[in-house]
Amino acid sequence: MPSASAERTLGSSRREQPFGSPAWLGKVLHRRFSAWLERRLPSVGRVRLAHRRIFVVPSPAGWLLGALLFAMLIGSINYQSSLAYAITFWVAGVHAVALLHSYRNLAGMEIVLESLDPGFVGGFGTVHLRITAAAGRTPTALRWLVAGQEVARVAEVGPAGERGSLRLRLDARGSWRLPWLYLESRYPLGLYRVWSPLRLDGALTAFPAPRATQRAPLATHRADDSTNHLAAQAADLEFSGLRAWRLGDTLGRVAWRQSAARDELLVRELDPPLAGQGPVWLDVQHCEGPGFEAALGELCHWVLQLEARGTPYGLRLPSVELRPAVGSAHQRAALTCLALEGRPE
Amino acid sequence: MSAVLSFFGPSPPQVERLTGGQWRWLAVLVVAACAPHGARLPMPLTVAVVALPAWRWWNLRRGQGRTPRWQQVGVVFAGLATLFFGYPTAIGVEPAVGLLVLSALAKVLEARTRRDGLVLVFLAYFLTITPFLFTQSIAAAGYAAGLFLLATTTLNALNRFDAGWSLQPLRTAAGLAVQAAPLMLVLFLLFPRVGPLWSVPLASPVARTGPSSTLSPGDIAALSESSELAFRARFAGGDPPADALYWRGLVLSEFDGRTWRRGLGVAASMARRPEPPEDAIYRYQVTMEPSARPWVFTLDGSWTGDPRLKPSGSGTWAALEPVERRLQLDFEVGPAQSAASLGPVERQIALQLPAVGNPEARVLAAQWRNRFGADSGAVIDAALRYFRSAPFHYTLEPGKLGPDSMDEFLFDSRAGYCGHYASAFVFLMRSAGIPARVVTGYQGGEFNAVNGYFIVREYDAHAWAEVWSPAQGWVVVDPTQAVAPERIAADLRSRAFGVVDEAEGAAASLWTRWWQRTRLSWDAAQYHWVRWVLNYDLSRQQSLFGLDASLKSSLAQLGRWLLVAVLVVFGAIALWLVKRAPRSAGPVQRAYEQALAALARAGFQRGTGEGPQAFAERVGAARADLGADFAAVTTALVAQRYGGGTLSPPSQSALRAQVRALQRATRDRS
Question: Catalytic: B462?
Fold first, then answer.
C-alpha cells in the first residue's frame, strides 16, 4: 500500500482519509463517506475540477475572524459609530467574497496523471502529474495532501501549467492503486479551506526491498539444460527480455501473461545473444532467506546485480518463468514479476 | 527517476515561519494600526509603537529569529506599568485601547510563525475601528480604510507560498475590497441601527470653549477666538433675516456684582412650559457638535418634540444628558406671540441686583429714569446712545477689572467684548427699574452658499440682553451692536481664516475668494458627511425606506430587506466571479473579433460554413485596402489555434495596429 510522505514514514498506511484527519468523524462514518466519495467521484486519469469535486469549509482562521467580526459589531452598536459599522461590514464583505475567491482558486483546474514510477518497498513510488489552470486564472498557493499529510506545495500555476511529482512511500510489495490525493488551497486569505479529493486511475508497483546475500540463488544444475533449451529456441526466436509494446509490434510477440499482470502490453524483445558470459537462472528454490518474502528480496538484489554486470539472467518463480536476457526492459519485467508474485491484482 | 518534488518546491516545514516579505507587511501594518493612538498613549508607549517593531526588525536582520523570553516579559510588564501610571483610572476607553496597542506590540516581539502573523492581522482589524472612539472625521475614515486595505494585504501575503516581497498582495487585497464594497454598502444601509445594547464607558470629552453656565466679564482677560465648529443649522423653506439669528443657549438672571448665573430664574420660568406652535414660520435642523455640555442653541420661540431634549426655562432647551455625540435636532418656530404678563416672581428676578456696589452706574440709571419716567423705550435708547457716543471700543482682550466692574467698564476702561456690554446694559436697565436679563449663546453664523446652511463657530459665541416690554414681551437688545455694528467677528474671522470682510471685498484678491470658496465646499462636504454618514441611524432608515414608525416592525422590515439584499448582491458577485466565462479570449482572439466587427461595418459577414482563411481571401478580393491587414490578423489567429504558439509582444502590438487600421478604414467609408 503506498502512502504519503516525503519527510516521514507512516506507521499504518491502511487508512485513507478523505478529510485529512477527522478524528471526530468516527470509523463507520468515515467508511461510509469514503464509499460515497468513491461513487461520487470515480477514478480517472484526467480530472477537471468542477463544483462536484470541490469542497469548501471555513478554516479555523475563518471562524476566528467571524468571532472577531461579531465583537466588532457589538462595539459598533454600543458606541453607535457609523464608521465602525462601515469598517466592520467591509471586513465582513471581504470574508464573504474570499469564499468565492477560494472556490475560484481551484475551480476549472485540470489535473492529468502523466506517468507513474515504481519503487522498492521502503522507498518511494513517484506520481508524475500535470496541472493546468482554467484560462485567465492563476491558481495560487496549492498543497497536495495524502492521508492528512502535506506532501508538496505549488506556489502558483502559470499559464503554461505546471508539471510535478508526488512521492508516495511504499510499505509493501505489490501493485497498489493510487490513494486519494487531496489538492487543497486556503488562498487568498486563509479563511476557507477548499479541497478536492482525487482518485487518479493508476497503480504504483512496489518491488521487493533488495536483500543482499553472499551467494546468488542460481539454478546451476539446470543451467546447461536451459542453455540447450535456449539454444534450441534461439534458431527461430532470440529474445532477451520484455519491453513495452510499440507501434509495429506483431501480436505474436506480445507476452500475454506478463502483460496481464502489468496492465500494459509487453512484447518479447529480440536481441543478439550476449557473447562471453553464459546466461544464468535465478531460482526462488535456491534462496537462503527465511520465508518467501525474504527470498523475493534476495532475487531482487541479484536481478539488480546481474543487470549491472550485463550477465543475461532468467527468473524462475512459482507462477512465472522469464527466459534469460539482459536490458532495462528485461530488468523491469523481472522486477515486476517479483512484485506481483503471488499477489493477484 | 526524475528529481523528486522539484516542481512543487521543497518539502514543507512543520512550523511555517514568517518569510521576509511577510514580515515587511506585518511591521508596516502594526505601526500603522497603532499610530493613530500615538498622541493619546502615555509617552513611553508612543515611543514603543515605532521602537519595538524597529527593534524586532533589526534583530531579524541580524538573524536573531526569537526574542529572549525575559525581554518579552520585561516589555509586557513595563507596558502594563506605563498604562497603570499613565491613566488616572484603569477602567475606560483610553486604557483599553492602550492595552490593545500593548498586546499588538508584545505579539510583534514574539511573532515567528504564520499563526502569529494571523493574530497580528486580526488585532489590526480590531484596532482599525478604535480611533472612531475619539474622532469621526473624513480623514480618520480615510485612514481606517487604508488600514483595512493594509491588513487585508498582509493577510493575503501570509497565505502565499512565494518567499519574496512584491506588491501582488496589495493588488489582490484591493480587488477583494472593491468586490466587497457593494456588500458593505448594503449592510451599512439596511442593518437595523438599534440603540446600544448596554452602556459603555465613553472617551473623555475634550473641554471646549463656548458659553459656560455663568458670565463674569471682569474676570476674563482675553476671549478665545477659536474657529472650531459649534453647530450647523439648515432652514427648511426661507432663511430668517440675519438679525434674527440669535441662538439662545442660557438665560442668566442672577447677578452677584461680578458674575451672572442662571439662578432662581430657571425655576420660575419653568412654570411656563413651551407649547408647540400652531403653524411654524421656520423649520430648522441643528447639527450639534459634541460639547460635553447639555446646552442646545435655538432661536427664540423654538419648539421641539425631540425626547432627548427638555425645556430649560425662558424658552431655552437643553439635552437630558451632556452632548457627547453629534446630535441632529429639528425645531420649529411659531409666529411671535403676544406678550403675556410678567408674573410677580419673574419680575422680581428680572430686577434683582446686589444691594451695594457700582454706585456710579446706579446714579446714571437713576438719571435716565428721572428724565424718561416709565418710558422704557426711551431709557433703552438713552443707554444705547451712551454706548455709542462715549469712546467705547470692542476688544477681545479687555484686561481684568476691579471690584466695581460695571463702573470701571462704563466710565473708565470702556473696552470690552459682548459680555461686558450685555452685563453693563442689563445692570443699567435693572437699576432704572426695567426688567432685563443676559442671554448667552451664538449670534449669526456663516452662511454656506454651497449647501444653504449656517455654520456657527466658537468665535460666534455672543452675549446680549433681553428687556421686558409690556407690549412686546421679552425683546432682544444687543448693546454690542451699538458700539461695533460690524462687530461681527470681521475682526475675528480674518484672524482665523485670513478672510477679509465684505466691506473690503473689492480689495479681496482672487486668491482670497478662491480660498473662501474652497473652505465652504469642504465644510459642505463635512456637513453631508455628518448628516448622511455619521448620523445615519434608525430614524433616517425609517424615513429613507418609508418604514413604519414602530420600532418592532421597522426592525423586522429592515431584517427582511437586509437578508434579501445581501443574498441578491452576493449572488450577483458570485455569478460575476465564478460563472463569468473565463477570459479565454486571448489577445489574438479579441483582435480577430474586433476585426470582424470592423468588417461588419463595411458589409462583410463571415458565412456559417466559411473558414477564416476563405473569409480573408474573399475580403482581400473585394477590398484590397482591407485585405492585407485582415489577412495578417487571420494568420495570427490560425497560427494560434492550430500552431499552439503564443505571439510575442512585438507581434501583439503589430496586431493591435492592424486592427486599428481596419477600424479606421471601415469608419472612413461609412
Answer: yes
CA–CA separation, A4 and B203 (whole Å) = 57
Angle at the Cα of B41 from the Cα atoms of B39 and B47, rounded to 5 degrees:
80
* B186 vs A97: CA distance, rounded Å: 14
CB contacts of A84 in chain B (<8 Å) are 129, 132
- Indicate if B418 belongs to the active site: yes
Q: What is the pLDDT of residue A30?
A: 67
Residues B120, B97 share a domain = yes
CA dihedral B655, B659, B662, B666 (to 10 degrees): 180
* Pair B45, B8: CB distance under 8 Å: no
- Which is higher by pLDDT, B80 or B218? B80
Tell me if residue A152 falls in helix, strand or coil: strand
User: Which distant-in-sequence residues (6+ apart) come within 8 Å of B92 by Cβ?
Assistant: B201, B204
Q: Is A154 on the interface with B (CB under 8 A)?
A: yes
Q: From chain A, pick out residues whose CB is under 8 angstroms from the CB of B325.
A: 80
Concatenate the DSSP letters of all residues of A280-317 into one string. Answer: EEEEGGG--SSSHHHHHHHHHHHHHHHHHHT--EEEE-
The answer to the question of residue B103 being in a domain is: yes
Average pLDDT in the B380-389 region?
A: 87
B176 with A151: Cβ contact below 8 A: no
Q: Is B537 known to be catalytic?
A: no
Which chain A residues are closer than 8 Å to B180 by Cβ? 90, 93-94, 96-97
State which of B146, B161, B176 marks the end of a domain: B161
Does A85 contact B at CB distance below 8 Å?
A: yes
Cα A78 from Cα A101, distance rounded (Å)? 33
Reported as a single tens digit per residue, the pLDDT across A150-178 is 888 888 887 777 888 888 888 888 888 88
Alpha-carbon span B644 to B639, nearest angstrom: 7
Read off the pTM. Answer: 0.67
Does A50 touch chain B if contact means CB atoms closer than 8 Å? no
d(CA B122, CA B460): 45
Q: State whether A254 and A320 are in the same domain.
A: yes
Domain boundaries, position B86 = 20-161
Disruptive mutation site among A8, A65, A68, A79 for chain B (greatest number of B CBs within 10 Å): A79
Q: Is A100 part of any domain?
A: no
Minimal Cβ distance to B180: which of A94, A136, A152: A94
Instruction: Look at A93-102, A126-135, B41-50, B258-267 and tell me which has the smallest mean pLDDT.
Output: B258-267
Strand order in the sheet with B316-319: B295-296, B316-319, B309-313
Closest partner residue to A82 among B158, B196, B534, by Cβ?
B534
Domain region containing A225? 220-340
